[in-house]
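Below is how a single chain appears once it has passed through the pipeline. First comes the sequence as given, then the structure the pipeline wrote out for it. We keep one example in the README because the format questions we get most often are answered faster by looking than by reading.
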Amino acid sequence: MNIRILPPPGAPRRLAAAQLSNSVGDGAYYVCSALYFTRVVGLSPAQIGLGLTLAWAVGSVAGVPIGALADRRGPRGTSVLLALATAAAVASFLLISSFWPFLLAACVYATAQCGLAAARQALLAGLVAPGERTGVLAHLQSMLNGGLALGAAVGGLALSADTGPAYRLVFVLDAVSFLVCAGVLLRLPVVAPLPGRGAGEPRLAVLRDRPYALVTLLNAVLLLRMPLLSLAIPLWIVERTHAPGWLVSALFVLNTVAVMLFQVRMARPVSDLGSARTAVRSSGLMMAASCVVFALSALPAGAWAAAGLLVLGAVLQVHAEMRQSAGSWQISFSLAPPERIGQYQGFFGTGVPVARTLGPLLLTSLLLLWGIPGWLLLAAVLLAASWAMGPAVRWAAGTAERADGDAPAVVRAT
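Resulting structure:
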């Protein structure tokens, strides 16, 4: 492994180890889960789609109160419990045989995953100085992609075997990976719980913070790049271009390896709200350009010409992804009051399940039905959202005293 992928020793490196451990299991799970639920459990694709949509909707709502719980009870203990809950949810998938138990297990899984993301962000905020958080998050993202790639390779072995025991072994691996994650998180220093809310303060203050809500909404729009890569572009390649089908896998590998190798470098210039706004704005330009290039791949041309355009579009897209990620990390922390980090991170993190829930239907309808005009409309939407982020961040920063990162939260060593 390239040493530059590793964060500095201490808490950042242990956070990275926790990220790597559960991402390996998740990579295998993502590759095999659909076939396990259809071929082994016996669910229909419609049941799986409905169940996961409802589950991620529940998880996105639960992220805010769980983030607030991490603030009040301490993020380390909360993170450990949620990692254990995720392991239990994954293990429960091995026992289901019908839709309703599947829906219940999926809701627990999505809730634990969304809550764990918020609690780990609060834990990172308590262990890492404000000026170093974006850089550490870049390292974690690199480790995440490396783990997903490794896990996907393991899942590929299960796919080639295509047997019930092979798929079940993948779920056991995922559950164990979260147990390992919990063990690694338990070895981190304890972060002191934050002070309780004052008299007259709302229980979930973030729900009344309209500027932060606008920033979160714009970020959710920009996160449409997630289902774009995993679903819309593969379908576009197969149904609308003459490019070879194996390019779907090649573009996924290109994205994964690029983020693993270059995310840390791309995040280095982002250190405050000004540089974060610049990163998000430039990512919008790159993303819009990639949409135009993807659209051109459908024009009458040879297979290799279409493939070349798709590769160019994928390069532009992953460049935009890395810049947008770095900018959004900085924005989400800088605008969150230091006494409500977990709550605000839980709210900001709802953009991920929202994009995963609404994005597939929106993008497939827009791109596969409208074709090239759909790509151009998507380019305009993403460009507008990225440029609107600047005024929205300035509004959010000016409405109240925000966390500029003068000092990290108090840490109490174990």
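The mean pLDDT is 87.

See the next section for the split statistics.
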